[in-house]
């Protein structure tokens, strides 16, 4: 009796895993003894077609328009009065300009100012644009870049003349509750239009605090009543700034020093 039960129940159970494995390797529609009936598809010809092709699902992609990058952002145009941003890739890498920027013991430098893409940019005598974060520019005590926090002074920015070469004033704010080293940028007749970024302000504030003379000018911006162009500044020790202006052949603006 035991052998009969073994052959009738035991062996099929032992074979069940193998059967399941074989069935799982078959196409889904053929598993477990199932079969799909032939389907006739009406068409222009006669007869029927077995296993019609699977109808593709509909897919709608979002069409986007990519605007080509303005080549002037990486190859700025000298003398262009229209404002176009200048990307960092347009400037010479810091490690490639070891002998590009010079300075003597009196603070005189070989750098000059030139107009590119509607903004004043520091330029070496050979026409290359040194990187503002290079060690040479750092040693000169030069700070250049966009002002910070101008969104909080929209009315002042709108009423200010921040066009290239316009005078800017530096005002230390040791009592500033957000940053004891804060250095505000003031425009003539408009008041504060923004601040030097925090990293540069930490260095600059120390120099101003011990009485060193610095000058500041706007290098990009707008006339009064217009705020369509980002505001940038150039800040440098007075002797260095004067040499930059002499090299550039442009008149020296009024001193923008405030202790």
From TrEMBL:
Residues 145-224 form the HIRAN domain. Residues 31-58 are annotated as: Disordered. InterPro entries: HIRAN (IPR014905). This is HIRAN domain-containing protein. It comes from the Bacteria. The chain crosses the membrane at residues 6-22. One of its GO terms (molecular function) is nucleic acid binding. Keywords: Hydrolase, Membrane, Metal-binding, Transmembrane, Transmembrane helix. Gene3D superfamilies: 3.30.70.2330.
């Amino acid at each position: 009796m035991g052998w009969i039960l073994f052959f009738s129940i035991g062996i099929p159970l032992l074979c069940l895993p193998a059967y399941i494995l074989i069935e799982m390797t078959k196409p889904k529609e053929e598993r477990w003894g199932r079969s799909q009936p032939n389907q006739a598809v009406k068409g222009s010809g006669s007869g029927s077609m077995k296993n019609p092709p699977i109808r593709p699902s509909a897919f709608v992609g979002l069409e986007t328009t990519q605007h080509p990058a303005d080549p002037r952002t990486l190859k700025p145009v000298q003398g262009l009065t229209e404002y176009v941003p200048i990307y960092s890739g347009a400037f010479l890498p810091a490690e490639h300009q070891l002998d590009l920027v010079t300075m003597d013991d009196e603070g005189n430098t070989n750098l000059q100012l030139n107009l590119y893409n509607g903004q004043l940019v520091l330029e070496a005598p050979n026409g290359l644009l040194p990187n503002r974060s290079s060690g040479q520019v750092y040693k000169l005590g030069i700070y250049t870049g966009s002002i910070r926090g101008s969104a909080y002074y929209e009315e002042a920015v709108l009423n200010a003349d921040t066009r290239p070469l316009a005078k800017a004033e530096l005002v230390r704010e040791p009592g500033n509750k957000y940053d004891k080293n804060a250095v505000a940028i003031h425009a003539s007749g408009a008041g504060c239009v923004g601040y030097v970024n925090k990293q540069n302000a930490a260095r600059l504030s120390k120099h101003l605090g011990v009485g060193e003379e610095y000058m500041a000018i706007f290098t990009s911006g707008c006339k009064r009543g217009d705020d369509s162009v980002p505001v940038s500044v150039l800040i440098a020790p007075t002797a260095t700034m004067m040499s930059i202006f002499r090299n550039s052949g442009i008149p020296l603006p009024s001193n923008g020093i405030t202790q």
